[in-house]
Design brief:
This protein has a single domain, classed as NAD(P)-binding Rossmann-like Domain (Rossmann fold). Helices cover about 45% and strands about 15% of the residues. The longest helix is centred in the middle third of the chain and has 29 residues.
């Protein structure tokens, strides 16, 4: 089907989506959201084998074909091996969700070079390597969706989260620039930059700190992972082909 200039659309049930860091939290919610409409699901994880299998079981309950893959996204060779595995299973992605990420909290003065390299390698370099590995097929078939899961701190910055904010700000710039590069090939590139979401990434906060955080947010609560996955799903739809190069922040009015 070719309804839009330059973009060859595929039926949703024939699409395959790869979600990195999908063993829990936002990534798991995204996987289940796509499975609910019958897409083929690829669940990437690094070490959380059992958690990834549990997400896979929930996705399969919707009737989706599901594959789990493990790779260290800091390592290009492991990403290339993951690509080869997906090719051998006939499951190269039409949609790539670069969701894997790690947080860091602390004063910049205390950040070590090793910490800097690790956060940048996972949050920014990992997205670059995965995109580079999987975008070729999207370009050749003239259809694809690349969705990067960023953070509100990549837009506004956060005290004591300079390293994390910098990595997500870089991801936002990567999104905007690549969108221009791939637009003529029918591939959109967007970022979703959530505010505070009720996941283990906020596990370093005490209960009273969570309450204080909720008081700062105009809607008065944290986001649920399903609320983020719904936006990711919308951006992946064939009819969303005119939305590209955008960084959209569902944050409850916290940062406008």
């Amino acid at each position: 089907m070719n309804n839009l200039k330059g973009e060859v659309q595929k039926p949703i049930g024939e699409m395959t989506v790869l979600i990195t860091g999908a063993s829990r939290g936002i990534g798991a919610a995204i996987a289940e959201r796509f499975a609910a409409v019958g897409m083929n699901i690829i669940i990437h994880y690094m070490n959380s084998h059992e958690a990834a299998n549990e997400v896979a079981r929930r996705c399969m309950s919707h009737g989706s074909k599901v594959l789990t893959v493990s790779a260290d996204l800091k390592d290009k060779e492991q990403i290339l091996r993951m690509h080869e595995k997906l090719q051998s299973h006939g499951m190269e992605p039409d949609i790539l969700v670069n969701n894997a990420g790690i947080s860091h909290y602390g004063l910049l003065a205390d950040v070590t070079e090793e910490e800097w390299d690790t956060v940048m390698s996972v949050n920014l370099k990992g997205a670059f390597l995965c995109t580079q590995a999987f975008m070729g097929r999207m370009v050749s078939q003239r259809f694809g969706r690349i969705i990067n899961v960023s953070s509100v701190w990549g837009l506004s910055g956060a005290s004591c989260e300079v390293l994390y904010s910098t990595s997500k700000g870089g991801l936002n710039a990567f999104t905007k620039a690549l969108a221009k590069e791939l637009a003529p090939s029918g591939v959109t590139v967007n970022a979703v930059a959530p505010g505070a979401v009720d996941t283990t990434m906020l596990g370093h906060l005490e209960a009273d700190e969570i309450r204080m955080l909720e008081e700062e947010i105009p809607v008065g609560r944290l986001a649920q992972p399903d609320e983020i996955s719904s936006l990711v799903y919308f951006l992946a739809l064939p009819e969303s082909g005119y939305i590209t190069g955008q960084v959209i922040s569902p944050n409850g009015g916290w940062v406008t």
